[in-house]
Design goal:
single chain; about 450 residues; UDP-n-acetylglucosamine1-carboxyvinyl-transferase, Chain; 4-stranded mixed beta sheet; 14 helices; 24 strands; about 30% helix; binds shikimate-3-phosphate; EPSP_synthase
Length: about 450
Amino acid sequence: MGGLYMANRVVEKIKKGLRGELVIPGDKSVSHRSVMFSALGDTPVRITNFLPSADCLSTVGVMRSLGAKVEMLSPTELVVTGNGLHGLKEPETLLDAGNSGTTLRLMMGMLAPQDFVSVFTGDSSLHKRPMGRVIKPLSQMGAHIVGRAGNTKLPITVVPAGKKLQGFTYDMPVASAQVKSAILLAGLFAEGTTTVVEPYQSRNHTELMLESFGVKLDYEGTAISIQAQDKLTAPEEILVPGDISSAAFWLVAASVIPDSELLLKNVGINPTRTGILDVLNDMGADITLTNERSSGSEPVADILVRSASLHGTSFGADIMPRLVDEIPAITVAAMFAEGETVITGAGELRVKETDRIQAISDQFNKLCSCITATKDGLIIRGGSQNVWQQGTCFSYDDHRIAMTLAIAGMAGNGVEIEQPDCVAISYPSFYEEMAGLY
Ligand code: S3P
């Protein structure tokens, strides 16, 4: 398969379509939770298809500091043995969440009820991200958490609350799986019932996994309730599905690069994550799900994607939690589609690893002046006029921006990516897979 190569970090134009099969690596959200929740059990849990990315390894480091035993049998296979639900140990060092918002936010929920001190740090991106959204509701439950910038930013210290946290009902102002999960984890230890009410349903991996650990959750509309537990009953094995957020880059690349046909194997298709399939289908994509099956408590499928003539679309807040991480990749689909794509209700993108609305518009406008950033979204003018001479774009050290630039480079006339190595946060083998497609 000739045509694509990367040299000096330059992605050259694909001369032929993308063809072949890719096995999609483990899901980041599920990998984090598999280690965290297993560390609350008291029997060994074998985790397979774990994502050995920098973010998930931050979670492994944090759980080890809290006394869990994590044996790496291979990069993708671990055995985690906890000391029971009430067996976490006071960490002797700082808990470093690295670049990972999921690690920090979920762990604040798990540590707020503990009777020891824990101090969190992270990288420069994580120091800028809003943590008040978790600290505020946990404080309403009685937690004592202090942080910089009026208890909203890292560094953050969790001190013992001095008494049991109190269950309560929290109407979440933003649909966020991280906030929801933090409160449910605190609810595992709180007095009475803890209820979270979401404006729109966010990814439900925490709920599915807690249930597989024997926790009974109650659902009413978009409200989820949990009670304190004496113990968690860990399953013997957790099989992590492939990450649809990683598959997203290939779904878009194969859709827009003529003469492509890719089979993406073992992709998680949990309905709370499949917004990208709905949007691409709506744009005219040629996507077929095959071999649908279960991977533990999560549904998976192989996805066949062929190139297609895409057209613009519009979507907003209601679908956002189901595709929030895929907006950068969807932007590339929109650039190569006929007509305009209007994305609204995406304000959360401004507080991800970087401000992704600004990053997308600033970098792609260097190539083709086809994007208008709005307060909470993007307007993308797609079409064949979007051609550029090979350009240089900055990743902002944000993994999803780097991979988005790479697929734009594959589909267009090449993009040189500044700071490309951040793909290791969620998809360490991304460039290798890409090189293997030519
Ligand atoms: C995640 C939830 C989402 C997502 C992030 C992972 C999770 O964040 O963007 O990459 O694992 O719970 P929010 O919950 O902040 O929307």
